[in-house]
Amino acid sequence: MKGLSKKSHTQTTINILASEAIKTSEIEREYLSRKDVMSSVRNNLKISTSYENVKDIKAKEIGELVTMVQNTFKEMLFD
Questions:
Q1: pTM (whole model) above 0.90
Q2: Which of 77, 79, 75, 37 has its CA nearest to residue 56?
Q3: CB within 8 A of 18, min separation 6: which ones?
Q4: Closest Cα partner for 21 from 32, 35, 12?
Q5: How far apart are CA 70 and CA 79, in angstroms?
Q6: 34-45 and 6-27 are packed helices; what angle lies between their axes, rounded to 10 degrees?
Q7: DSSP assigned state of 52
Q8: 75 to each of 14, 68, 78, how far by Cα in Å?
Q9: Which letter does DSSP use for residue 51 in this model?
Q10: Do 46 and 68 contact (CB within 8 A), yes or no?
Q11: Neighbours of 30 (CB within 10 A)
Q12: Confidence bin at 74 (pLDDT 50/70/90)
């Protein structure tokens, strides 16, 4: 991803996080709207110029989860 433009890098990150969220949810037999998950991811990464409405609360929450993991994966779990 280092060779991608900033715009392509951002879009690829959104796609990867959304796909991860959707596949993770499917394991639990939850089938989420890709559109809602992607909106949630964009909202949480603060990429959108305005807040995008997310109708499905589960899509909103999984979007929050995957972006939190993306933003904190390098942090130590315990001291």
A1: no
A2: 37
A3: 34, 37, 38, 41, 63, 66
A4: 32
A5: 20
A6: 130
A7: P
A8: 21, 11, 9
A9: P
A10: no
A11: 13
A12: confident
Instruction: Give the residue among 25, 15, 20, 2 at the shortest CA–CA distance from 73.
Output: 20
**Residue at token pair 């979007």:** 63
Distance from the Cα of residue 47 to its chain's centroid: 11
Give the model confidence (pLDDT) of 6-64 as tens digits: 889 999 999 999 999 999 999 999 999 999 999 999 999 988 778 889 999 999 999 99
Q: Which amino acid is at 62?
A: I
Burial of 7 per CB tally in 10 Å (0-12, 13-18, 19+)? exposed
Instruction: Please tell me the total number of residues recorded for the chain in this structure.
Output: 79
Report residue 51 as tokens: 């807040």
Amino acid 30 reads: E
What one-letter code names the amino acid at 72? T
